[in-house]
Specification:
Layout lengths: L5 H5 L51 H25 L5 H20 L6 H26 L3 H23 L6 H26 L11 H30 L6 H28 L3
Helix pairs in contact: 2-4, 2-8, 3-4, 4-8, 5-7, 5-8, 6-7, 7-8
Length: 279
């Protein structure tokens, strides 16, 4: 099963039967000599990868993902706050564009990297935070209420929490058909946004990125796709933990979740702003 999130999809660590937690180990999801997936050692014995293996080659745990995701999102929040309060008025547009371009470039590099680089993840988070901070300030000023940002953050947390609870409580099975549908829809959505950007360079407006009815429609579609991508990401992370992905892959999982959560936040913020209307 593959995730539609290109970050998690790139690594074989999140696919059963692919890759190894450390040299000489069984592939992820394949039985080791004693019947344990990707591990060595009998009952009550620690896995062999802990005996002299590099620190980053031990199996990834859910705690690893939670800690690294918290760090990444923390950098996003701090960078966003600094960009909101410290960016001079005459530099708002250049800094906003720079943050967007740097975040996009690093996202592409990280998405297609076989081995995740934690330092680049942190730089990406900082650039994404700059983009979100200035973009959020623009929307808050348009609405005339900075409290809308807090509402969007809370809405994002609640939505992500409910999605996770639904995934676990109802024991949602991510099938190949569901994955293909989400992948196709996500790629189609991204394609429409790229075309819209190219048209805007020639002065052609479609309203997709605006604050009108068309913008509301596409923001709602984007938020819905983000929720479906969260389900796929939760499933891939669960598989990675179950099949013995190496510890360093927790950074890839954290990056993938950050990308999806940022996408969810931005669309929810736009929805709230459009429904409220500008001054």
């Amino acid at each position: 099963m593959q995730s539609s999130n290109p970050v998690l999809n790139r690594s074989s660590a999140f696919a059963p039967g692919q890759g190894q937690a450390y040299p000489g180990a069984a592939p992820y999801g394949q039985p080791g000599p004693y019947g344990q997936p990707g591990q060595y050692g009998g009952p009550g014995m620690p896995p062999q990868q802990y005996q002299g293996a590099p620190a980053d080659s031990r199996p990834m745990t859910l705690d690893d993902v939670i800690v690294k995701t918290s760090l990444t999102l923390g950098v996003v929040v701090v960078a966003a706050a600094l960009a909101w309060w410290r960016t001079p008025d005459n530099l708002v547009t250049p800094v906003f564009l720079a943050g967007a371009l740097v975040a996009f470039a690093l996202a592409m590099v990280l998405s297609f990297s076989r081995r995740i680089n934690p330092a680049l993840v942190m730089v990406y988070a900082a650039a994404e935070g700059v983009f979100l901070g200035i973009g959020s300030k623009f929307i808050a000023n348009w609405v005339g209420d900075s409290g809308i940002v807090v509402q969007a953050v809370l809405a994002t947390l609640v939505t992500a929490g409910l999605t996770l609870a639904t995934y676990k409580y109802f024991n949602i099975k991510v099938t190949a058909k569901f994955t293909r549908m989400v992948m196709i829809a996500t790629m189609g959505f991204a394609g429409v946004l790229v075309i819209n950007l190219l048209l805007s360079l020639f002065g052609i407006g479609t309203g997709i990125s605006g604050m009108g009815p068309m913008g509301l429609l596409f923001a709602a579609l984007g938020a819905g796709l983000a929720v479906f991508n969260l389900i796929l990401d939760f499933d891939m992370i669960e598989q990675g933990v179950r099949h013995g992905a190496p510890q360093n892959e927790a950074w890839r999982a954290a990056f993938g979740l950050t990308v999806t959560l940022v996408w969810l936040y931005w669309n929810l913020l736009r929805i709230l702003a459009i429904l409220r209307g500008g001054d």
